[in-house]
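Sample 3 of the quickstart, ligand D-MYO-inositol-1-phosphate:
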Amino acid sequence: MSDLLGRALAAAQAAGTYLMEGRPEHLEVEAKSTATDAVTEMDRGAEALLVEMLLDDGPADGVLGEEGGERPGTSGVRWILDPLDGTVNYLYRLPEWAVSVAAEVDGIVLAGVVHAPALGTTWWASRGEGSRRAGGSAAHPVPNAVGEVADLAGALVGTGFGYDAQVRRRQAGWLQALIGQVRDIRRPGAAAIDLCRVADASMDGYYEQGLHAWDHAAAGLIVTEAGGVVGGLFGGPAGPAMTIAANRALFGPLHDAVADAID
Ligand code: IPD
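Result:
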């Protein structure tokens, strides 16, 4: 296992334990970008723990965190962190939330971990060394491999929505155009996990507008190392404008349907 992956796994597990065991009876919730975009003391505490552990081993590393923003470093390594992806699920005690940790070197993600302790599952990948998961129904780590569904009509597709009411209405309009073309739609509520579900074939595809690097950096590598494709519209990179993930055969049809829907 690479040093970066080992550090990412150790930090994600520590933050996961903090989030599982440290949750107070009454959780203070603050609004971020909109009234329903929540941040809690647990998001901030988990990010502080991740940063402390990662910078302890690499004091010159940089960090981009969902809660703390950009802290530049000088080593060439940048940690991209979502301390609690699926905050609303966490608030409602739904198990679909995760800690996401990616290690980027000179702009390329080399290692990624998505740790979902309430689901009992961790997905991880190292560039060029494959994608694995442990927990859930798998007692020992098993390789992730994207599914084989190639036609849109047979595909189970995940998506997500932004926190701004106007944006959500627009996204719902796109969904209306898409839902009749696919097998069905899922909206579990934590983008990093949704992407990992494409990697382990428990979903066939995923798309969402509005994702940030901390949502998809780790999970994106987990998908590509599992044989899938992650990208944006018309050959662009995954990012806020659009993130699409699927197996190689399905990516094109899903991309085209999403592009048509938002046109
Ligand atoms: C959110 C979740 C959600 C997605 C939103 C994200 P957060 O992240 O991943 O599934 O639809 O776009 O912002 O706010 O829970 O870290």
